[in-house]
Structure formats: structure tokens, C-alpha cells
Design goal:
Number of strands: 19
Radius of gyration: 33 Å
Distance between the termini: 49 Å
Structural class: alpha+beta
Helix content: 40-55%
Largest sheet: 5 strands, mixed
Strand content: 5-15%
Number of helices: 20
Shape: elongated
Amino acid sequence: MLLQSLVQQADSRQGDTPEYYLARRVMWQIDLSSTGVGNAEPLVIDLRQEQRKITAPYTGRSGSKPAPILFADTAQFALAHPGLVKGPDGEKVLSTNSTDVTKARTRHAAYRDLVTSWCNDYPHLTQAQAVAAWLNNPAPTAWPLEMDKDHLVAISLNGEWVHDLPEAKSWWAHKVKKAKSGKTGKANRGLCLVCGHVMPLLSTLPVPIKGIPNSGMNTQLVCLNQPAHFRAGTKQLGATPICVDCGTKSATALNTLLADPEHRAFADDSAIVWWTRDPDTDTAMWTLHDPQPEEVAQLIAGVRHPRRGRDALAVLDEDAFHSLTLRVNTNRVIVADWITIPVPELKRRLGTWFADQQTWDGWNNTYTYWSVWRLVLSCARWDKRKNKYVDTTVPKHLQADLTKAALHGAAPPAHLLPVLLQRIRADHHLDRPRLALLRLALIRTTTRHKELCVPQLNPQSTEPGYVCGRIMAMLEAIQRKAMPKVNTTITDKYLSTAVVSPRAVLTRLRIGARPHLRTIARTSGPAAKAMDGRLRDAFDLLDTIPAHLSTEQQALFILGYDHQRAHSARAAAEAIKAREAGKELAAGQQADALPEASAEDADSSDNTLW
């Protein structure tokens, strides 16, 4: 199914990349434009600074006698370069080792034979005549000082690459197909598992996969070259019959996707590629990397209107969305995840993904959404001195796992919630991305609390963890009201303990809140009375303060704390507007209004909550 989808992708984009061609970084250009004038030497142009990639011939090769590649090959093949070695003073110098020199000359001779064969097949072409004239000269004995044997070299004439000629493309495709399918004969034909036709079969895939993190020179999508891998004693593709066309198209399509930033993303040591059957379809996949509020609002609206969503899914949509997550192990591609779903279903799952991570910013009265990479970063350790996350401490494979959860509509990995809670307890840092990830993990890993995990405050909830979090936020608000310039709040001091064992902490803090309420009463009796009443009502929601909280209840504690703070921030913003308009504040508004000293800094609580 995977190879079939890749072949369909290659057919839908037919003409984008020729067969057995790949985007490659050319470092040196051999310009033959001047060779016809008095037998002048060709011009060697350094392209290293341009970081230039061009579509050039390529095929997988390995072993002690690797085959040359037409027109675009390493300096060792194209120019008989022996390579650079470290000299006595530490600088790189040209190798004079007889083994290196002999290997370079042998490989250059194979390269000359290949290119000469092409020139002989197209003697009427000006380019073939120029290349043949260049090859008639002896192998070079002097090279640019910066050139090394592994640098890619390509040939041009009059400003055009020789390998871009239609004759070069067709000749190279025929050459590779013939080499990869082995000797012609009946034994080499069979039923292709991809297209279902009796065709010439490959012995190995002709094109390696490029662009996956940690991949080598010859990474294969299908590789059976050890006895433990064999099936019925048959190695390589003998037990996995794939025809020449399907093997080429599937590998070429995958390489094209890996080279296209619009269709791939990197996550740690993984690469994620996606495409649709119709190449012109908008997949909305980009919202996982850079969610735009308008696009996210449309996706969520589709989820929250069930009838409209059913109607969309009931329509037969021939277009399909494909996503593939790849890793590498010892030059073999690992398919970590593979999904094929209709495009409407993709939009529904993405809408659910953003709805599940939705958080409310009470101060600005807006909902916030975050990209996958931003959620992943929030699970790293927070560095207080540098005021940023330490990206090297991100849990391994988490970005790929969250992307998989989004596309499959599944739960994130089970270890996410304990790791995130441990981070919050350790560094006392809570921001919007962490809250979004906490809510997402809580909703998708447990069904018992799904209705509770709403984006805003649920004042009727009697869940012990949630109510304890609300009480913690209320006690902190009382402290801030009484001590506007406090440097270290009760949350800074007691969070780690309160999240795990709230009874001891909240009982002590409730006693400590009494002098703060008396301080508030000296300036505003109604405000002190309102805050004391809210605190008492919250405690009344509990039959008893729990001595210890489970992992889920700890997450609810953090959620209740945030919801109460966001609710208070909304009320504070409204109180400030009323005060600026010259209106008299009611008792509840006086309790919510920020002290004058801290009103200017209120917006700082938007991204960092403590």
C-alpha cells in the first residue's frame, strides 16, 4: 500500500524529477565552453559557497567496485582525484599514497568508459563532441587546492548542464534499469506486488533514500542482504518482487518529498513527509507547524457542528491524505508510522487536536493554540537564568509521537503526563504551551475527566485536585492584593509540595491568609470580605482536603490553578476598564482589581504564569 501510494504520487507529479535523478549539491563545475578554442583547458568553477543543489543523475552504489554515475560524480571518478590527507603541519595536502592514486585512476577509467559510451551513442550532439574531446586528453594531474575526492563534480557547456539533455536522461534511465534488473531472461520477470503486472523485476532498488536524519550514503527502503533477512533462501528483492518502474518511481517520489519543505518536517531523528493524491489539494498539515488563528477556528468549527461534519464525510471524496514517518537504522529505512485517510477526516482530526489543546488567555480574552514543535519544547527543562527552555532536554521522539497522535486522533505517549508534571514541579515554570500540553494529555489519556477539562473555569466542579488548584490561586491572589510588591509568592515556595500533598500546605496557607485579609480590609473592607467569601465557598466544595493526589489529580490541580488565574485576570481587566471610565467598583470588582503598582505589569502574566 505504501509503495502504491508513492507510485501514484510520482505519476501525479510526472516530469518533476527524471528517472534516476536526485537533487544533489554540486561543489565544482567543469565548463567545457573554452575547450574548442586552441585546445584550452576547461574552466573549473568553485560552487561551494553557493550551497547549490541541482537535479542530477544518481543511483545507489556500494561495494569495493562502485559503478560511476553519468556526468555528475565525485572528483575521484570524474577527475582521478586521490583525496586529501593530513600533512605534517596538520593542514590537508594531496595524497601521494600509491593505493589512493591507483584507486582514483581505476575509478576515473570506469567513469571515462561510461561517458565515452554515451558520446558514441550520440555523435551528432555538440555536447557529446565537446565531452569526447575533453576525455581524449590524459587524466588531470593538478586539481584546485580546496578540492577533495568526495566533492561532487558536474559538466556544463555554454551555460547548460550536459546531464539535463533529454538524450542523457533517457540513456541514463535505460542504463540503470538494465543494471538493476540483472540479465534479461524469463527468470527475471514476474508479478509486481505494486502494480500487479508481469514485468521485469528489480534485484535491488536503484535509488537510495536521501534526507532522513542520520542517514548514510546508501540508505535503502527495502533491503534484504543478510541470511536472517532472507525469505525462502532468496536475498534482496527476490522474495519482494517489485518491477523496475514501480521501484524507481516510489524511491524517486519519496526523495522528492524529503527535499520539499512544503511536504516534510524533521523531528529529532525522524523525518515526516505528507502528500495527497491530488497534488493541488490543501491539506492543512501546515497548521501543526505554524497554526494560524483563522485556519484553526475553521477546523474547530467543523468539529463542533456534527451535522455539517457528517455531511462532509458522507460525500465520496476520492482524494486521500498520506503521511509517513521515517527513521534510519544501519542504512535501512524504518517506517515508524504510516497513515492514509480522506482529506475531510484529516480536517476533523486536526480540528479535534486544536480543540483538545485550547487554552484561554483571560487577560486578553482570547484562545491560544500551539504548534507541535512548541508543545514539544515546553516539555524540556526551563532555564531560569537564560529565561528559555533547554532544547537538548526534550524527550526523545516526542515530536514524532505528538504528530502521530494528531493525525491518528489518538492519545499521546503515556509517559508525557508524568514527565510534564515533573518539569513543572521542578522548575516552577508554567506558560501557555505547557498548559495546552497538560490539557491535551489529560483529555486524551483519560475519559473520566474529559468533561472537566474545558478551556475555562468550571466553578461547579468538586474534583479534589481541581478545587485545590483553584484554592491555591485564590490564596496567591490574596497575598498579591495585600503585598503588591512581593518578590516570592506562596506558589514559588510551596508549589512542589502542594501539587502532591495539598492538605498540609493549604491548611497552613489558609491560616496565613488571615493577616493578609486584615491588611486588605484596612483599604477596602468589601474587597476583603469578597475574597474571604470566595475562598470559603471553594473550601466548602471539598468534603475533606486530600492528603495526597494521584498523577491525574496533580494535572487537575495545575489546570484548576490556571483556570482560576485566567478567570481573575479577565475580571481584573474589566475592573481596570471600569475604573478608567470613572465608574464606582462593586465589592467583587474591588477584590478583582489589581493594585495600582502592579496594573502596569499585568500583561506580563500572559505568557508566564509563575
